[in-house]
Amino acid sequence: QRVLLPQGYPESVSPDYARYQCWDSLQALCSTLAGSLSTRAVLEAVGVGDGAATVTGATLTWLLR
Fold this sequence. Notes:
membrane, 2 helices, transmembrane, UVB_sens_RUS_dom
């Protein structure tokens, strides 16, 4: 608790701090997941993981985007 909560918690923060922190943490998790999925989709679109894809084709596709 000393690592995750502000010093003097709960007296040192507003009453809605815990609820705010839960929503903020959930937002950060969703943002991280969305970024990971977006990166994966872009890499698949340029041919990463496809045995038939060429390096030149992947590079051209990446540059065109």
